[in-house]
Structures are given as C-alpha cells and as structure tokens.
Amino acid sequence: MNRVIPFLKADGIAASILLALALLLVFLEINFPFGGYDLLLIHFVAGFWFFLADNLPAISPDAGTWGPGLGAFLLATAVAHRFLSGLAAKTGRNWNFATTFCLALVVPVLFVIAFIIPGVLLQWEMLRQTPWLETNSPYLLR
Questions:
Q1: How buried is residue 33: exposed, middle or buried, by Cβ count under 10 Å (0-12/13-18/19+)?
Q2: Most buried of 56, 66, 72, 123, CB within 10 angstroms?
C-alpha cells in the first residue's frame, strides 16, 4: 500500500510554508528586534491585497473587454477538440471533451504565471527599497 506523507500534499505544503514563515518571523523578532522584519513579511506575503485594493477598481467589467478573449478561448477549445478527437479516432483511442478542456486550461494558467512572476519580482524590489526597514539597526544582519 502506498502511503502519502500528509505534509507533502498540496494543502500540507502550503501550511508548512506558512508555518515556516511564522517561525522565521518569531525567530527574527526575538533575536533581532526593531528590524522591520514583521512588516517585511506581512507585505511580502500579503502584499497582493494592497495591490488589489489599488488596482481592482481600475479593471473594466465591460464585456467588450473580456468577451472577445473568452470567445476566442472557447472557439480554440472547440476546434482543438474536433481535431484531437478525429486524430484519436484514427488511432482507435477514445478522446473526450474533458481532456481537451484540461489541455486548453494550460493557456490561462501560463497567462497567469506570466503576470505572477514579474509581480513577485516587482514586489520584492519595492520591499527592498522601502524606507521603513531600518538599515542602521544594530540588530540587522549584514
């Protein structure tokens, strides 16, 4: 029987990361007080909420903005399904729409990743330049 270690599941990994960040915060606060590490971790972990609060009102809910993209995605999915099911039929295999849809979802996932990575890098750079992190503290690691 294959046993999966619980903390290696997706939820366990996320919980382990949050626990490690909390322990790191406690360690830094105890050993290096007044270093601004608490604000650094809060802004790095939850900085996207500040970003959303600033930028979400600027997003247009107009269907003319997102409608053509959604329509093109659904049309491309239908064309891909027709092509792939025909190709699978020639080889004697079964192909269903769920498989095509899962393959089509790779495009939005890559689209989101293309925005997340620069966002994390910009967030890191902004945190690096923030003046509230005391650089002249005697407790700061150099």
A1: exposed
A2: 123
Amino acid code (one letter) for 70: L
- Mean pLDDT of all residues in 61-89: 91
Q: Is the dihedral of CA 44, 47, 51, 52 positive or negative?
A: positive
Query: What's the rounded mean pLDDT across residues 41-47?
Result: 72
Listed residue (120, 134, 142, 135) closest to 43, CA to CA: 120
Where are the alpha helices (H) located in 56-105, listed in sequence order? 63-90, 97-104
Let me know how long the chain is.
Answer: 142
12: which residues sit within 8 A by CB, 6+ positions away? 5, 6
Angle, helices 37-55/106-128, rounded to nearest 10 degrees: 130
Max Cα–Cα distance, the chain, nearest Å: 72
Q: How many other CB atoms are there within 10 angstroms of residue 43's CB atom?
A: 19
Whole-angstrom distance, CA of residue 123 vs CA of residue 43:
8
pTM over 0.70: no
Determine the Cα–Cα distance for residues 47 and 18; give it in Å rounded to an integer: 15
d(CA 25, CA 131) in angstroms, rounded, equals: 19
